[in-house]
Amino acid sequence: MKRLSFLIILLFAGFIGLAQVKYTSSSRSAIKNYERARYLLDLNNFKDAETELNAAIKQDDEFIEAYLLLADVYRVTFEYAKAKEFYKQAFAISTTFAPDRYFYYAESELKTGNYEEALLHYKIFKNKGNPSIEKIVLADKYIQDCEFAIEAVKNPVPFKPENLGANINTKDQEYLATLTTDESTLIFTRQINGNEDFYRSYKTATDWTNAEYLSNNINTPSYNEGAQCISPDGQFLFFTGCNRPDGFGRCDIYVSQKEGNGWSKPINLGFPINTKGWESQPSLSADGRTLYFVSDRKGGFGSYDIWKSTLNNEGKWEMPVNMGKKINTAFEEQSPFIHPDNQTLYFSSDGWPGLGSRDLFISRLDTGGNWALPVNLGYPINTYGEERGLTINASGTKAFFSSNNFNGLGGFDIYSFDLPQKIRPVAVNYVKGIVYDEDTKAKLGALVDIIDIKSGISLHTSYSDKFDGSFLATLSNNKEYSINVAKEGYLFYSENFSIEKNQIGKPIILDIPLQKIAIGKKMVLKNIFFDSNKFDLKDESKTELQKLIEFLKENPKTQIQISGYTDNIGDDQSNLILSQNRSKAVYTYLIEHDVNAKRLSFRGYGATSPIADNKTADGRALNRRTEFLITGISE
């Protein structure tokens, strides 16, 4: 309410000062009502002031000051349609009495979608008013909005929002939906009696399950929880908590880790993410290494800017960097959402040309690593109202948002819509799996490392859930990957897979059994590569070899045999020699990288001991393999 009082002082001061000299009304009763209204406004009593001003107008229907003050009351209380009507009536009486008020008349029209009228009245304000430089700058900005909006309305984009239904939406307020990459889990904010808490729903074949209270560890009865994002793998929830005892400022960003079906106690991310100011609305990149968020800290372009911070190799967040003038403006930017493609950013802004209030925008990362100028998502996705809080699924086809502009179930509801082609991100896919003990079937928390085979760069490093063994990683299409899963006391697991260019909506599902270290246990090194009929290790093999070296260092008492196998194409003697040379190549590489030769042996087995049918190409590919066998464990 203090903010409204401050606005009243700013917006009414000049006009009231003039009005004290002489009123346009000669009706004493009307003037008495008017002056009583001014007194009530000093007390922030808008309702009774409205009553007095209506009474003044009833006493004198040409009392311009009363019309203008009533219009101002409606405007600062965000009742723009009423404000517009009373400005209109005031200027119908006189077009010259208070030309500076054309600015606010135009604002009320802009906020209700009357763009052509608003454009006209902003221009009148500039030509006939006595505007300050600051007001001229604002008028020019809003003129640009009006011109943009007029064209946008003429060229609408496809938009058919669908309510997510009664299992998620209620008579209360539901908003700020976030989605896991596999689209199996939706987490959103529900406000009941002014208190914000998180709720969760699961996707079934036909609908969303009835939303359930997320966690007593995260939700509190005393503080609001909101403005959240969930990591693409569903393992971490980043959210905003305000005025908490462990807070650094007004609002801070916290993180909680998934523990089976529950969540851990939240941890404040601390400095340098949080400051004495206001930090909120986190969005995490698919690899979990870049956090985008909103802050009013020093060094920005406006009151609220979008910033980003990267996670260094020590697991600490680095000093945040402002997203720069191609994203941020002198106005407000909020609600960042970085798509899992890591190159498409959606956000809301009232600084870039739009249709009024905050609009939703898209910016794409170019090949040089620079963000392009934002593009408005278009009408009617954006309207004269306020749009914010967009979430896009991994395939880039569907968007989720909240609104109270439709006939929903009550207040703000959560909706989805098909995203127009021109504003879609790059489609991505994902790999999902379960890690477990091969013998006991117990689920395991293990280190999961996914690597781009061609570049050798690790794209995803995380742990599978220690309760249910699950993991999920978002990956680009049209690439080949290797995956290594490791846990103390177990042989590591290796696999490779590819995601085709058009493999949208068809994720990779892996079943990963880990074997306890024991004599006689063996595993296939699926990411050791040779050219056909050759035994020179290809560069793509080095990542897997490094994993084997790390395994031997972490288990210094183990001795292993490197075993080579071929398919049955060719004569037995040639296959035996080839397999022996390939196993020797791995053996030699390990020795050259400081593995004690006494712990190693190698042997070629040719086409013997096939693990698949040699009658098919796929079967022969599986038979051409390199394994390691535990041959001894010293005391």
Automatic annotation (TrEMBL):
Keyword Membrane: yes
Source organism, top-level taxon: Bacteria
Organism: Pedobacter alpinus
Record-linked SUPFAM superfamilies: DPP6 N-terminal domain-like, OmpA-like, TPR-like
Name of the protein described by the UniProt record: OmpA family protein
PROSITE patterns in UniProt: OMPA_2
Record's keyword terms, sorted: Cell outer membrane, Membrane
Location(s) in or outside the cell: Cell outer membrane
Gene3D superfamilies, A to Z: Carboxypeptidase-like, regulatory domain, OmpA-like domain, Tetratricopeptide repeat domain, TolB, C-terminal domain
KW Membrane (keyword) present: yes
OmpA-like domain span: 517-634
